[in-house]
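Protocol step 4 of 5: obtain the predicted structure for the target chain.
Materials: sequence only (see below). No template structures provided, no constraints applied. The aim of this step is simply to have a reference model before the mutagenesis design in step 5. Sequence pasted as it appears in the construct record:
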Amino acid sequence: MQNDLTIVIPAYNESASIPHVLPAVLKFCEEKNCYAIVVNDGSKDSSKAELAKFSDSPRLKVVHNKLNKGYGGAIKTGLLQVDTTYAITIDADGQHYLDDVEKLYNEITSKDADMIVGSRKGHTSASYYKGLGKWLIRNTARLLMQISIYDINSGMKIYNAELAKKYISFYPDSMAYSDIIALVFLSQRHLVLETPISIRPRRDGKSTISTLTAFETVKQILNMVMLFNPMRIFFPVALTCILISLAWGFPIAISGRGVSIGSMMGIVTGIIFFILGLISEQLSLIRKK
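Step 4 output (structure tokens):
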């Protein structure tokens, strides 16, 4: 790997997993000539003390957030410390296989891609609610954007570190980070590919992902679409208002009963939505620049 890959690991209250997961990561880094950055995201357990046991490793850098910034905030903290060509994110709970780290690295270098998403397609979710949340996120993203990636919320992604830093202000601090970074790369026409990975149940601790996480992610997707392509939202709404209003008012006008006030209000509403979309497009161009 020629010292051009950094593994970024966000950790929050992972004191039980760190003694088992981190030694394997460091051994992998020594064998493959890569680095690891662990971000202790304001953990309230003994994660800081557990990480201190590995402070003598030349392949490891530990960053401590004084307060919890969230999953995305922790990864962004680690990403800013990366000085290699590529960065890959994995979880601290031991769900990801290190063999897949090498697999994704080989994919991104051989295909000259900007991001490779580790796809969990075919793996059953840990719970019904998680599966429902992933379905909601995927279909919302597909409805609002043209995407070819199935598992956009996979926590295991490898990407060009400089590109990831370039758009870092667009990523949320929440669990939605994984989805939004993929959508940002896609919307900016970077080459994003997908390859299957394997996962296993988390070793210890309890996942903080809930149904609310899915709704928060959907909200962040809407925010991102409003930033990069607002007409994707405004135009269908405007067109729907106008078509429904015409369908409502046309029979009334033909029958000689005049022009429907409700129909006219609907048409004007559609035009207003269209104009708002145009204004949002201009604001989007300013913000992106």
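Step 4 remarks: Residues 231-288 form one domain. Strands lie at 5-11, 35-41, 60-65, 86-89, 115-119, 157-160, 192-196.
Proceed to step 5.
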